[in-house]
Amino acid sequence: MMTSKEIRKAFLEFFANHQHQIVPSAPMVIKGDPTLMFTNAGMNQFKNIILGNDPITSPRIADAQKCLRVSGKHNDLEEVGHDTYHHTMFEMLGNWSFGDYFKEEAINLAWQFLTEVMKLDKSRLYVTVFEGSPNDGLERDNEAANFWEQHIAKERILNGNKHDNFWEMGDTGPCGPCSEIHIDLRSDEERQQIDGSTLVNKDNPLVIEIWNLVFMQYNRKADHSLEPLPNKVIDTGMGFERLCMAVQDKKSNYDTDVFQPLIQTLGNQCNCTYGKNAKTDIAMRVIADHVRTIAFAITDGQLPSNAKAGYVIRRILRRAVRYGYTFLNQRESFMYRLIPTLIQNMGDAYPELEKQRELIIKVIKEEEEAFLRTLETGIKLLDKLIAEAQENKVKEISGMDAFTLYDTYGFPVDLTELILRENNLTLNYDDFNTEMKKQKDRARNAAAITTGDWVYISENSDTITTEFVGYDTLSCETRILRYRSITQKNKTYYQIVLEKTPFYAEMGGQVGDTGTLTSAENEFEVIDTKRENNLPVHILTTLPEHMTLPFTAQVDKERRKAIEANHTATHLLHEALRETLGKHVEQKGSYVSPTTLRFDFSHYERLTPTQIQQVERLVNKKIRQNIALEEHRDMAIDEAKALGAMALFGEKYGNRVRVIKYDKSIELCGGTHAQATGNIGLFKIISESSVAAGVRRIEAVTAEQAELMFESVQNAQNTIREMLNNVPDIMSALQKLMTDNKDLTKKVEQFIAEKSKNICEELIQRAEEKNGVYFIRITGKESPDMYKNMIPMLKGKFSEVKFVFAVGTVFDNKPNLIVFLSQPMIEAGFNAGKIVKEAAKYIQGGGGGQPFMASAGGKYVDGIDEALDKVIEITTI
pLDDT band for position 293 (50/70/90)? Predict the structure, then answer.
C-alpha cells in the first residue's frame, strides 16, 4: 500500500515526466489580494496569469498546494469532523496548461495517472460533464464527453448541472465547464444493490469526487454575459486526502496515514480510543484537522488575532479547544503537543514546519490557555444565568444573553446550549439568530462594494501591462488604459489603470502613493493606489471627461520621501534587532506609512529599556553613516539568497527578485526606499509590545515625525519645570513631591481610620432593633470607603445576632449604597448582593457583591432614603 508521502511524490513525478514545471506551494495565507484571505484552490497563485496580468513563464505547471476553505463561498467548517471527507486545511494536487494543451490531453493525463500509476479500479470510476445552460446560451460539453468515451463506458459519463459542472472564479472573471472524476468506495455487495451512478454528487460519503478538471474558456462580465477567453486554460484540482483514502482502501480520509498519526497521538494524550464513541470520534477528527490548519497558518506568518484572517485562524483554534474541552475532558492546553507528530508526518514536504517549530508550539499553547480562561469566565456567567432562571422557575434562557456570551466573551453558543440542556433548560435560538443576523448585516453593509465592468479605452488596452517607473522617477507622461466605477458606503470612486505609472501600489506593508493626474484640461487627485491581481489601480473621486488625452502622473513627493524613510528604517531596525537579540529574530509583519512605521518580529520576551536603547543607537548610527542604497532590481532568487538576502516565511517569491542592500542589511523587497540612510534623519522607538505568543511589535517614527516627538517631550519638560518653580533638577523635585504626597496620604488614611473608629463606636450605641433584627441605618457625604472600613469592627460586635448595616452616601455628587449582613442573617437566607440590587433601583443604578457585603452606585441622589428604607424593609420582615 502506498503511503501518503509516496502518493504525493508520484503525482509530482508523473507530471514532471510530462513536461510540467513543478512549483512549490504558495502560502496558504494570501497577502496583497483584497478579494481573498486564504488560498482556497490551487489556481489562486496563477490567477494573475489567467487574467492576463502576468506573463506566462511556463505553459505547463503542476504542484501540491496547501489550501484553506473556511469562510465565504467555500465554507466547509461546520462539516469538518462530522463527516469523513471535509477539511479546513487540505492539499490540492493540480496541473495547469496556459494556452498549451486543452481538454483532450487533460483528460488523458488524469485517466492515465489514476488508473495506471495509482492503479485505481476503473469499474469504480465515474465522470461528469457539463449538461449545458440555456440561460447562458451554452450547450452540453459534448467535446469533453467524446474524449471521455475513449476511456470509459458511455453510461458512466454523467451530466452535471451548472452548480457542479461549471466553474467560476467569482461573480466576474474567467470561467468554464468542468469534468469531475468520482470514485465509488462502497463494498461490492452495496454496489450490486445500488448503482453508483445514482449516488454521484448526492453527498454519499463513499461515492466522492476526487478530481475536477476545469476547462476555462469564457470570461464572465458584470452584466453576467459570457465572452470567449483569449487564452484557454486547463486548471485541475485533486483532493490529496481523498486520493489517499481511495488508494489506501479506506472508508474515511481520517483513517489514512495523513490523519491517523495525529489521532493516535491525541488518543494517547486524552486516554481515548478512536472508533469507540461517536462524539469523541468527532472531537478527535476536528482537532486533527484544525491543528494542521493552525500550524500552517502560523508558518505563513498569520497569527491568531481579532481581525480578518487572524480572526478566522483564532476561530478555528477555539473550535478545536472547545471540542477537546467538551468531549475529551481537556482542561489544560493540549493541542500544541501534537505539533511534533505533525512535523514528523508532513515536514518533508513542507520544511517550513520544522523551521518554525518553536513559534508554532508557543503560539498555540498561549492561545489555548487564553481561551480556556475565556471558557471558565463564560461558564461562571452562564452558571449565574442558570441560577437566576431556576430561582425564577424559567425554563428558557434568552437569546440576547447567549449572544452577549458569544459576542462579548467569545463563549460558543453550542457549548451554551449543551450546558443548558444538562440543566434541563433551553435556549431561545430565534432571538439569538436575530442578534447574529443584525451583527452580520452591520458587517455586510459596512463592507459591501459594487464594482462595474472594466471599460477599455482602446482596442489593445486589455493586453498591455502597466509599466512601473516609480523606483526612478515620481513623474511621467502616461495614458489611461481602462477604468471602472466602484461604490462603497454610498460613495462612488473610480479605479484607473495607466499605461505607465510612478505610483507605488500598496503592497508588502507599504501604503500606496497619492498625488495627481493632470491633463491639458484639468487636474485630478489620486487619493490612493491599490494592487489588484498584480495591477496598480489608481483611486480617484472624479473621472476625467476626456479619457484619451495624454496625462502627467505626479506622486506627492514629500509624502513619498516620508514613506521611503520609514521603509528603509524597518530594514535597519530588522538588522539591529538581530544584532541585539539574536539571529532567531525574523520579520512577521510590517506597516509603513508617511507618519509611522510598525514592525512585528519573532522574539519571546519583552525588550528591556537597555535593549531598546541599543537598537535605537545601532539604527541611528547607520543613519549617520549615510549608507548609499545598493539595489539589485532583477536578480535570480538563488543568487539573492547566496548574497545573504532573507526570504520571509509566508511570502511567495518568483524566480527573479529585487534585492535592497544597506551595508549588512540585505532583504528581498519590492518597496520604495531612501537613496541613502542619511535621508531618514532620525529614528526613535515610541512603543514595544506583544502581538501574540512569541511575536513582539515595535512602533517608531523617523525624520520630521521624530523631531515633532522630541519637541513635544521638551515642551512637556519645560511645562513641568515651570510648575515646579523652575527648579534646576526636575527629577529631584518630583521625587520630593512624591515623597511628601506619600507622607500626607498616610496621615490622611490614619485620620480616616481614627475617625471611622470613633464614628463606629457611636453608631453601635445607636443600633435599633425590629422583629429580632438589629440594624444601623445611616446617610452621609463621606467616601464609601470610610464606612467599609467599619465593617470588621461591626462584624465582631454583632457576630452572634441578626444585624444589618445599611449605608447611603452622596460622594462626588454620586449616590452609593453599602449593605452588610451578620452571619446569622446569611444563615436565615438573606443575601446582601440580592438586597442591594433591589435597593439600587431607587437610585437608578445597580450593583452586587457577596452574601455578607455588597455595594451599589447610581445616578439619582434623591432616591437614597427610599433605597435604605427598602433594605430595612426586606431584612426586618
Answer: very high
DSSP, collapsed to helix, strand or coil, labels residue 64 as strand
Q: What is the DSSP letter of 117?
A: I
* Residue-wise pLDDT tens digits, 772-791: 999 999 998 888 888 888 88
What is the distance between the alpha carbons of residues 560 and 512, in angstroms, rounded to a whole number?
9
Written as nine digits, the cell of 501 is 505609472
Which residue in 526, 524, 555, 552 sits closest to 539, CA to CA?
526
Compute the distance between CA of residue 872 and CA of residue 860 in angstroms, rounded to an integer: 19
Q: How confident is the model at residue 270 (pLDDT cuts 50, 70, 90)?
A: very high
Per-residue pLDDT reduced to its tens digit, 169-202: 777 788 899 999 999 999 999 999 999 999 999 9
**E strand intervals along 431-522:** 449-451, 455-456, 467-468, 475-478, 480-488, 491-498, 500-501, 515-518
What are the φ/ψ torsions at residue 693 (nearest 5 degrees)?
-60, 125
Where does 556-694 show beta strands of DSSP type E?
A: 587-592, 597-602, 630-636, 656-662, 665-668, 683-692
Beta-strand relationship, 226-239 and 207-220? antiparallel
pLDDT band at 445 (very low <50, low <70, confident <90, very high): low
Nearest by Cα to 670 from 686, 697, 690, 652 = 652
The CB density around residue 6, as the number of other CB atoms within 10 Å, is 12
**357-391 and 278-299 are packed helices; what angle lies between their axes, rounded to 10 degrees?**
130
Per-residue burial over 173-210, b = 16 or more CB atoms within 10 Å of its CB, e = otherwise: bbbbbbbbbbbbbbeeeebeeeebeebbbeebebbbbb
Is the CB of residue 638 less than 8 Å from the CB of residue 653? Answer: no
What is the DSSP secondary-structure string of 503-559?
A: PPPSBTTBPPP-EEEE-SS-EEEEEEEEEETTEEEEEESS--S-TTS-EEEEE-HHH
Mean of the per-residue pLDDT values of the chain: 90
Strand 551-555 to 515-518 pairing: antiparallel
- pLDDT above 60: residue 76: no
pLDDT band at 462 (very low <50, low <70, confident <90, very high): low
Summarised one tens digit per residue, pLDDT across range 622-660 is: 999 999 999 999 998 889 888 888 777 656 777 889 999
User: Residue 432: enclosing H or E segment and its boundaries?
Assistant: helix 429-447
Q: 39: helix, coil or strand? A: coil
Torsional class of 557: left (φ above 0), alpha (ψ -120 to 50), beta (otherwise): alpha
Q: Are the C-beta atoms of 783 and 755 separated by less than 8 Å?
A: no
632 three-class SS: strand
Amino acid in the structure at residue 415: L
Q: Please spell the DSSP secondary structure of 202-223, one letter per residue.
A: TT-TTEEEEEEEEEEEEEE-TT
Distance between CA 292 and CA 288 in Å, rounded?
A: 7
Residues 6+ apart with CB under 8 A from 580: 611, 614, 615, 618
